[in-house]
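Subject: complex prediction, re-run

Hi both,

The earlier run crashed halfway through, so I resubmitted it with identical inputs.
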Amino acid sequence: MNKTLKQLHEEIKSGSLTIEALVESCRKTINEKDGDIHALLGIYSDELINAEISHAKEMFAKGTATTLTGIPIVLKDNILVKGERATGGSKILENYTATYNATVVEKLRDAGAILFGRANMDEFAMGGSTENSAYGVTKNPHDTTRVAGGSSGGSAAVVAYGGVPVALGSDTGGSIREPASFCGIVGLKTTYGRVSRYGVMALGSSLDQIGPFGKSVSDVEEVYKVIAGYDKNDSTSLGKITDNRDKIAENTNEMRKIIGVPRAFIERDGIDAEVLKNFNESIEKLKNSGYEIKDVNIEHLEKALAVYYIIVPAEVSSNLARYDGIRYGLSHPGETSIQSYFESRTAGFGAEVRRRILIGTYVLSSGYYDSYYNKANLVKEMLKKEFVRVFKDVDIIATPTSPIPAFKIGEKSQDPLAMYLADIFTVPVNIVGVPAISIPSGKTEGSLPLGIQFISPHMREDMLFTIGYDFEKLG
Ligand code: GLN
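This time it finished cleanly. Structure:
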């Protein structure tokens, strides 16, 4: 599956490829590869897929087809599709069937996409390796002894091995960009509020965003254009529509082609030597192609990780209170309802989820709220101001996506702090709410993919696509 969405679209339009044949070839690749990789938790029902195929064919017949019409897409298993299962990677939702569609699902369907299957993920999107899934780990298609990254590891892996052309993930602290970089594909985290969160299982509601994976910047942009936009069902949805390409083309004229590199922050203990070398080479290539490179100092940047690991657990402890074993999901009856609540949650949640609920409950408790949660939010505001200041001088901030390439399965699963440190470059982006993209930047000597992260100001996804296309051309 190395064709772009635009190429597939032309082939379907000309009749040289049928939608049925495309869907069948995806099924075949998945059947061949997924037994080993375990990117998927399930394929949607035949009833759903067949109805989507008919709808897509109708759109072609009527001349209303979009670039996504007839294109199979996989969704991370925290995105709801009515009548289909959705587990969030958790045992507590093992038997849950969604009762409504997420807004992104409605949008993809209107565009004629074929919603194809559910991707494996860390439980409720907490993790960076998909090892926290209650349904087993997803392996990296480039080296099956290593993780695919996380928490959207399944979405990244299925695109990387060619099971489907594109997939959706969610990114609260790096969960699209990190697995994209580990699997050698492109992943986009949009401006906070750009894509509706309605119908997505909440992790950290003030940070969560859905975004696309693809093999090229162009494929990611095509999916972005379909899923972005205002939604009255999401109170944090942004109203301004700048997602039409004509407007974006106007905007690109303003791009000064200046890249800021927070050197002191990047060249830190713990960064892998090959990652640093590859990053420096990428920056050199951009410089030779006409970009100006500036060293920037972003104050408080190193505090973002600590802020994140206060805000997320706090929001987790409140968001996950709904899984009480009474209304839906796994239920362990106890003698009293409080006992039933304890038992269902102990049986249903994995270790990382319980750890975050405990930390979150602690940081929100009376007496600690001011010293932790409020303080974290103050630092968040300071960081936002810092980014506004830095973006006066540069258009783009560049960092490696991850300080390390894909690690071995089991290597960090017993060491939460080591796992959290892998998010050092991605987390600040969510704290500030700006968009960022991870693009493949080469490989290690051992053939593991590496990625570069480009960050732009709020609502300037267009700049990420512009630099993304430029970077892709540099090879
Ligand atoms: N690895 C980060 C975490 O564990 C990011 C998760 C995410 O973006 N969903 O929270």
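The chain is about 40% helix and 15% strand.

- K.
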